[in-house]
Design a protein that fits this description.
Layout lengths: L7 H12 L6 E13 L7 E2 L15 E5 L11 E9 L5 E7 L6 E2 L6 E10 L9 E5 L5 E5 L11 E2 L4 E13 L8 E9 L8 E9 L3 E14 L4 E8 L4 E13 L1
Antiparallel strand pairs: 1-16, 2-15, 3-6, 3-8, 4-5, 4-7, 8-9, 10-15, 11-14, 11-16, 12-13, 12-15
Length: 258
């Protein structure tokens, strides 16, 4: 990453300028993750996603977009339109806007190998999505992305780097909270990357443990950003010593045009 003087202040200024859109070919991104109920034991390791573990597609498919609430539809009080963004079969960025139709599926025009994010665009009287919004692969029938009620943005912690970009990981934040009184779980967080996509092996980037008394947070700080190449799948996972532990994450990165 550019840092002409090598001091921390200059690095902060660079990130600030990227966030302002003043550095050509660079953009800032925050990837949010949330799993409300991670089960116990290493064998029960789960993705930090609203719906639990993601089933990766081997080829692109259209997505069926639907809500659990009929208010997320034209004339309703909930979310009216949203943006779906992901990766096409050839690795290029694919994005489109979708008009919601409540609990009735709306099928995307494009076919997605990965769905990276869903973001609310317009809403009715409440100002947010009233139900849980899911993007489900039309053929495989597996959920690829989810936005829970009132959140307005998906929180799945998985991300696939487009063929036109390099992903420079700078920091990851983890948060865990116990869901039952008297339980003080130890939560293990892991970061994985799979260069080359679905035909390659997963590589563990880091492993952190956190002892939880009500709620705790731990950060993975990277003095030198980790360079993750185009075509790489990224995911964050966790396991816990006590069932029904809630976990959250925020992953900060700079996308650099190749």
């Amino acid at each position: 990453m550019p840092n002409q003087s090598g001091n921390r202040g200059t690095t902060k200024d660079f990130y600030f300028e990227v966030a302002r859109g003043n550095v050509p070919g660079h953009s800032a991104i925050i990837i949010r993750g949330h799993n409300p109920d991670v089960d116990s034991g290493a064998a029960a390791e789960e993705d930090l996603a609203e719906f639990g573990n993601i089933t990766y597609l081997s080829t692109s498919e259209t997505m069926d977009i639907a809500s659990t609430d009929t208010s997320d539809a034209p004339g309703g009080d909930g979310m009216l339109t949203m943006n779906v963004s992901g990766i096409a079969n050839d690795g290029t960025v694919l994005t489109e806007n979708v008009t919601m139709n409540g609990s009735t599926n709306v099928t995307t025009t494009g076919s997605y190998l990965r769905v990276n994010t869903m973001t609310a665009l317009t809403a009715g009287a409440t100002g947010w999505n009233e139900g849980n919004i899911t993007a489900t692969a039309s053929t495989a029938g597996t959920i690829q992305c989810e936005m829970d009620a009132t959140e307005g943005v998906s929180q799945n912690s998985h991300y696939t780097v487009a063929s036109s970009q390099t992903f420079m990981l700078t920091q990851v934040e983890f948060n865990a909270a116990r869901n039952a009184a008297g339980q003080d779980p130890t939560v293990e967080f892991k970061g994985y990357a799979r260069p080359g996509g679905s035909t390659a092996a997963w590589l563990q980037l880091f492993d952190k443990k956190l002892a939880v008394d009500v709620t705790e947070e731990i950060d993975v700080l990277l003095p030198v950003p980790t360079k993750i190449p185009s075509g790489t799948d990224i995911r964050l996972r966790a396991n816990t010593t006590n069932a029904t532990t809630e976990v959250r994450s925020r992953m900060y990165a700079i996308l650099v045009d190749n």
